[in-house]
Amino acid sequence: MQKIEATLLTMVIVHNEKSGEILLVNRPSKRGFPGYLGPGGKIELTESFAEGAVRELREETGLLVNPEDLIYKGVDEYILLDEGYRYIVFNYVATKYEGNLLENAPEGEPRWVSKEEVADLPMQSWFRRRLPYFFQEGTFEISIHLKNFESSPLKESVRKIG
């Protein structure tokens, strides 16, 4: 059996149900993946997926969420064929949170935006395609095969569950 190298990541879309806004982070080019994205990042070895999501959300935005309050939405994977590497992202929505947004956040400016405003914001194409699934019923699985991160998808599949 072939050993597969992978990085496990999380992403949390915080949804303010009263205002209808969602929290995104405007990442500068120097941080990689410039534009607006959901908060998230790498899961540490001793963390559960939810614990990693909560930590990344706190580090990037200042908001606190209880892991039990996260709503699991699905997984997406990016398979880089040139590198023989796989990135796997566990996706969550949070509607219960507390705290204040960080000023001078290390990963970029956290900002509340309306769902209507999202269409006009600069963001990575993979995130723009994935974002609607956070607000649909059920969960999702997305698999994208790429030669490398700069290439167009060679193969892409989306599966909705529930």
Summarize the structure.
14% of the residues lie in helices and 41% in strands. It has 162 residues and is mostly beta strands. The protein starts with a strand and ends with a strand.
What does this structure look like?
With 162 residues, this protein is mainly beta. The chain has three helices and nine strands; from the N terminus they run ββββαβββααββ. It has one domain: Alpha-Beta Complex (Nucleoside Triphosphate Pyrophosphohydrolase), CATH 3.90.79. Strands 1, 2, 3, 4, 5, 6, 7, 8 and 9 form a nine-stranded mixed β-sheet that branches. It is globular. InterPro entries: NUDIX_hydrolase-like_dom_sf (IPR015797), NUDIX_hydrolase_CS (IPR020084), NUDIX_hydrolase_dom (IPR000086). GO terms for molecular function: hydrolase activity, acting on acid anhydrides, in phosphorus-containing anhydrides; metal ion binding. Belongs to the Nudix hydrolase family.
